[in-house]
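Methods — Computational structure assignment.
A single polypeptide chain was analysed. Its primary sequence is given first, followed by the predicted tertiary structure written as structure tokens.
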Amino acid sequence: MNKKAQTEKYIVEFVILVVSALVLFGVWKVYESKVLEAATVPQCNLNILFSAGSKLLMAGLSEIPPECQAEYVTVDKGMIDRSKILAQQRIKTYAEDKTSFYTNAKNDFQQDSKSADEWALDYAVAKRLTTCADKVFHGNVDFFSRNANSDRNFCVVCSIMNFADDIPDTVKNRKINTLFSWSQAESLFGKTYYDYTAEGMTIKPDISLLGYFTGMPQAVVYTETKKSFTDKHWGKLLAAGAVASAATLNPIPLWAAAYNAALTNLKADVEVKEIMIIPYESLGSLQCTDLIR
């Protein structure tokens, strides 16, 4: 074989090797993405566990992978419109059902455009709650309990929701109180949305704890602490919330008043684990000693 032919042979072999490597790399990336997608929940929990264990030295904040950080969501007209047909179908189901299962939802949602908008909005918010439950309850890692004490309050900001100016007037700048009945009527993984989200909580949320206001950004937050911490650090806040009217649009009373009565009957050493919807500007009111977002 002459030198030219030998050189051409090497070039062909090199090209085949490169192409084979690229094909194998592509196959691996597809496999890797599927594996990581399936493992996102426990992976997030493990990262949060390591962050909590390090005592979050950087000013109380944690550096965790993007897939584990707070989800920033803009709820706009397009998001609501995409769920409108489903909303109308489900509301019709509520109305036609002869059992008592949909009683609360049947009372809250009528067969009109306003209720369809509200149903679609609740659907968007409910998905943020279940995503948070996946992070903190369904990853099989009880990542904060070993550190919880009366001096610390661990918080995870799961989602921050902004409500766009183009959302329908029927749900704009309003306090929405239908998520409670919505979550009891709709199913996820063989459970109601309510049970899927609330099964790990100390205080099972009622209608007041699942209310939210579309006139300002809302945060879906997980908090884990001792009842004694809430007595010490939330006392004035909760007292103010209890006195104020929960019907006002003041962001603190909207959630604080609801928790006041629920926390009162718990013993001081009880561990309080909650997923809550609060105005984002009220996040500081939780007095988080360790904040992951």
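Note: DSSP finds eleven helices and nine strands in the chain.
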